[in-house]
From TrEMBL:
Residues 30-212 form the HpcH/HpaI aldolase/citrate lyase domain. GO terms for molecular function: lyase activity. This is HpcH/HpaI aldolase/citrate lyase family protein. PANTHER family: 2-KETO-3-DEOXY-L-RHAMNONATE ALDOLASE (PTHR30502), PHOSPHOENOLPYRUVATE CARBOXYLASE FAMILY PROTEIN (PTHR30502:SF0). InterPro entries: Aldolase/citrate-lyase_domain (IPR005000), HpcH-HpaI_aldolase (IPR050251). The keyword Phosphoprotein does not apply. It holds the Pfam family HpcH_HpaI. The keyword Lyase applies. Keywords: Lyase, Metal-binding.
Length: 264
């Protein structure tokens, strides 16, 4: 049985951090190669904050298989109609933004996982199984084990229910969306403040208490703070987006050249 391992889950299950890049600009499978060349384990194909369509997301996900990168998709909401189509077509996990209650977490698990964990409908010919015509029971168990479900905490309400969300069976990662969370808490941009440090400690503790759950963080793009989160037990980290990587390096280069021109 040709099961394709979820590289992000494999890393985290081994106690290592899984690093991912958010895709907002990429419309070609080449971004999968760029993600691997830059040391990333997974990509977040962002259908919440980009104009990308489903067909493009699928093409990128298929390219990810050739580079050993895990394709994940961030959907707009828990009832997003194309979520299961994306999983059937090769996406290896779903990232759900702004999870506020355990009921929402249970709902996304229900949609993404097969019986007995959820109620996802079965089909034949799964990419992650090499299109082998396997018995439904075997295929469902294998895919349940490799399909990643990520719940993002981005509000005060979600934070108040953090432990309950982490305890939901089938949730793999509880992921802080730091930008929106700090905005909702009334302290926008205060990534280095005591509030977020305390939240990180609480998140890691909640995931450990729930067992087999991994703490994640995104939005705070400061390298030393990301490293501190990993050293404290964080395992699922969004490094940055393709957009910001491109702008940052392009700006560094143009500033360098303009500075050289002025100096001469």
């Amino acid at each position: 049985m040709a099961i394709v391992e979820n590289q992000a889950l494999k890393r985290m299950r081994a106690g290592e951090p899984a690093l991912g890049m958010q895709l907002r600009l990429g419309r070609s499978g080449e971004v999968a190669g760029a993600a691997r060349a830059s040391g990333h384990d997974w990509v977040m194909i962002d259908l919440q904050h980009s104009g990308m369509d489903v067909a493009t997301a699928v093409e990128i996900s298929l390219a990810c298989y050739g580079f050993g990168v895990t394709p994940l998709v961030r959907i707009p909401d828990v009832e997003y109609a194309d979520a299961i189509r994306l999983l059937d077509a090769g996406i290896m996990g779903v990232i759900l933004p702004d999870v506020r209650t355990a009921a929402q977490a249970r709902r996304i698990v229900e949609r993404c996982k097969f019986v007995p964990v959820g109620t996802r409908s079965v089909t034949v010919g799964y990419v992650a199984l090499g299109y082998e015509p396997l018995p439904v029971s075997i295929a469902a168990q294998a895919l349940n084990n490799e399909t990643l479900v990520v719940c993002m905490i981005e509000s005060a309400e979600g934070l108040s229910n953090l432990e309950e969300i982490a305890a939901v069976e089938g949730v793999d990662v509880v992921h802080l969306g730091c930008n929106d969370l700090l905005m909702d808490l009334g302290i926008p941009g205060q990534f280095d403040g005591p509030e977020l440090r305390e939240i990180n400690v609480r998140l890691i503790k909640a995931c450990r208490a729930a067992g087999n759950k991994f703490p994640g963080s995104g939005g705070d793009r400061n390298g030393p703070r990301q490293r501190s989160f990993i050293e404290a037990g964080g395992r699922f980290v969004t490094t940055d987006s393709d957009l910001r990587f491109m702008v940052a390096e392009a700006l560094r280069r143009t500033n360098e050249l303009r500075g050289a021109s002025v100096a001469s």
